[in-house]
């Protein structure tokens, strides 16, 4: 039997859209402040995604899947790094940092979307 639906659970479903909207609308100035190591909206949203994965997994499964999601993300990053350095003569951090943040954001977004679908499936079906 799934946990009861709470009104505060709606915050977990609306929060990603609100964070992306406000981050893109009002955060562009702050993202461009650091010239040496630029920030993207994906990097800024990673802590929020980790918190949402922890909250949703506790709601659905009654335990946290955060370590599993971190292990899967690290595995994706290791495969990406292996593919990235094959043709390089010299490794630079900044280009890899930006590409790796996109990979981590995509992996965690997929995991979060999967948790949303599992929660909808377990509650309504």
Automatic annotation (TrEMBL):
The keyword Transmembrane helix applies. It comes from the Bacteria. The chain crosses the membrane at residues 6-24, 36-53, 59-82, 94-118. Keywords: Membrane, Transmembrane, Transmembrane helix. This is Uncharacterized protein. It comes from Eremococcus coleocola ACS-139-V-Col8.
């Amino acid at each position: 039997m799934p946990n009861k639906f709470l009104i505060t659970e709606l915050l977990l479903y609306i929060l990603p859209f609100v964070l992306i909207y406000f981050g893109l609308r009002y955060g562009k100035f702050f993202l461009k402040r650091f010239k040496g190591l630029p920030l993207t909206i994906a990097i800024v949203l990673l802590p929020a995604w980790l918190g949402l994965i922890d909250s949703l997994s506790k709601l659905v499964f009654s335990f946290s899947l955060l370590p599993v999601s971190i292990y899967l993300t690290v595995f994706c990053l290791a495969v990406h790094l292996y593919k990235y350095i094959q043709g390089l003569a010299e490794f630079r951090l900044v280009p890899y940092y930006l590409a790796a943040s996109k990979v981590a954001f995509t992996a965690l977004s997929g995991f979060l979307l999967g948790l949303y679908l599992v929660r909808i499936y377990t509650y309504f079906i």
